[in-house]
Amino acid sequence: MNGANYSVVSEFVFLGLSSSWEIQLLIFCLSCLFYVFSIMGNLLIVVTVTSDPYLHSPMYFLLANLSIIDLIFCSIAAPKMICDLFRKRKVISFGGCIAQIFFSHAVGGTEMVLLIAMAFDRYVAICKPLHYLTIMSPRMCILILVVAWTIGLIHSLAQLAFVVNLPFCGPNVIDSFYCDIPQLIKLACTDTYKLEFMVTANSGFISVGAFSLLILSYIFIMATLQKHSSGGSSKAVSTLSAHIIVVVLFFGPLIFFYMWPSSSTHLDKFLGVFDAVLTPFLNPVIYTLRNREMKVAMRRVFSKLTGFRKNQ
Prior knowledge:
Blueprint: H1 3-6, E1 11-14, H2 21-51, H3 58-73, H4 78-84, E2 90-93, H5 94-127, H6 132-135, H7 138-163, E3 173-174, H8 181-185, H9 193-226, H10 233-259, H11 266-289, H12 292-311
Parallel strand pairs: 1-3
Antiparallel strand pairs: 1-2
């Protein structure tokens, strides 16, 4: 069946988050607040790592790129969600819907690989400290970044291959505030049972597998760290705990979305907002509050900026 011949749907209608004016107002205020803080927090990390020579290390290079990914991710669905909150008819074009799916999966797949790379970076730093700079060389860091984006793009294109040629002849109502594959394939005018299983296998099983690998890796690193009593162990534990919290925040909603794609509940929408707005905000907060070097570097950046303004 060729989607070009049968797809008559040119736009999709979102049901949104709530029909209550009071709840919409609360969501609007909180979403705007967290979205602005997400942008500012992640930009601050990128600027700090870029401008402070003390942070020119593999760990902070990966952290800065994670912040760049979060900057892109929080701008995929959140701005439209905020604009749509008080609109009676929340509409997105077919092309806009496909674009949301493409960018969210490309960025999400890239972040998944980057989180694995950050776990590997901590493994090398703690378990093979003498070879750290040799293994995590600038060339290796660039290679990790290229591989991460390549895998993210391939994953996204593979996901789109499932849905781009599906026939959509109505209905066109999505019980959400953004487009994603589990909600979209339910609207296709064909049997999608096998397709739903393939989507679950592609995104759900990959998410569970990557999450399990990361948690086991961090458990192994923690166990290795306990065998070595050194002055820097508390700092390493703090860094690792920050990584683990970010991993749980990132993979938790993904596993729920793609392992139980048939659910359509208030929890599903709450996790959607959490994933779109809160997670990109919490990532810089977690990394900065639990990282003394980052806090000191931010102070240096602020002092440089204020000193520069005074001189002017």
